Amino acid sequence: MTRRGAALFILMSVVWGLPYMLIKVAVHHLSPAMVVEGRTAIGAAILLPLAIRQGQIRPVLRAWRPLLVYTVAELAIPWYLLSDAEKHLPSSLSGLLIAAVPLIGVVLAAATGHRDRIPRRGLLGLVIGLIGVGALLGLDVGSSGLGSVGEVGIVAVGYAIGPLVVSGHLDQVSSVALAAVSLLLVATVYLPVAVWQHPTRVPPGTVVAAVVALGVVCTALAFVAFFELIKEIGSTRATIITYLNPAVAVVLGVAVLGEQFTLGTGVGFVLILAGSWLSTIPRGKVVATPDTFAGQHPGAVASGDLHNPLSGPSIWS
Which stretches of the chain score pLDDT less than 50? Predict the structure, then answer.
């Protein structure tokens, strides 16, 4: 790997582990709708000129039906629910739960005919991953937090659906254009709600900085950097960042926000990532995996770029 490739790899490993902490900071003073509006508006403002310069907006708009499905499944619903859930859940726990997206993606891909039946190794991975999720819920989440966990669960399903929509209907369009148009649509929809829920006083500088970082770094920069990473080291090796993002989310949550590193966090972290690895890398061969660490989430490249039916332009968290 070249120095440039290594630098991009490290950058993306951090960038898609960062949103969980930033969202946690933002929702202390802003409504989930305002957080979504801020990051999508900023991201669209940066990416839209690039897409227009490419001349790739029209092909995206022609496929307006799958575009809407993708936008709702990958951005509009997940980003709101994740922001709402983080009002009650630690950012590190949210990041670990979202790490189960590859497990869900494998099941959905097999169920919809995007791949053959799940091999034994994949089934073992699913079982291990589910045990990891159970460890998180049983050791770290009380009954009062189950509603928020349910929201994160819906987010994970949405992050897994988005790439399947892309691979089936949007794999020939520009990734930057698809991201730009999707972000613009979400920003337009959330604008009235964000205006209605605007705070009565100016939020602290840390909150404003968190929203700006979500839009600039974790959305716009993330798209461009990930595409460059793929060019530099290939799609297969690029998707290894999938397994590093949750670690970054946990470290930032503990070190910066003072969240506890519990037994459930440790056990769940190891089991979920091990399960995801076993499920998405059959027979020792590394393949691209679906992920959406907004953040996933949330995950951020079209299947046409990765040449994998499970990958798609997910913005991780």
Answer: 282, 284-313, 315-316
Bridge partners, 297 (sequence order):
316
d(CA 139, CA 266): 10
What residue spans define the domains of the chain?
3-306
Tokens of 306: 């990765």
Q: How big is the chain by its Cα radius of gyration, in Å?
A: 18
pLDDT score, position 315: 46
- Verdict on whether the full-model pTM lies above 0.85: no
Give the residue among 303, 39, 24 at the shortest CA–CA distance from 291: 303
Q: What is the pLDDT of residues 4-24, one digit of tens each?
A: 888 888 888 788 889 999 999
pLDDT score for 275:
77
DSSP of the chain, one letter per residue?
--HHHHHHHHHHHHHTTSHHHHHHHHTTTS-HHHHHHHHHHHHHHHHHHHHHHHT-HHHHHHTHHHHHHHHIIIIIHHHHHHHHHTTTS-HHHHHHHHTTHHHHHHHHHHHTTSS-PPPHHHHHHHHHHHHHHHHHHHHH--GGGHHHHHHHHHHHHHHHHHHHHIIIIITTS-HHHHHHHHHHHHHHHHHHHHHHT--SSPPPHHHHHHHHHHHIIIIIIHHHHHHHHHHHH-HHHHGGGGGTHHHHHHHHHHHTT-----HHHHHHHHHHHHHHHHHHSGGG--------TTBTB-----HHHHT-TT-----B-
Task: Note the residue count of the chain.
Answer: 317
How do residues 165-183 score in pLDDT, each as one tens digit? 877 888 788 888 999 999 9
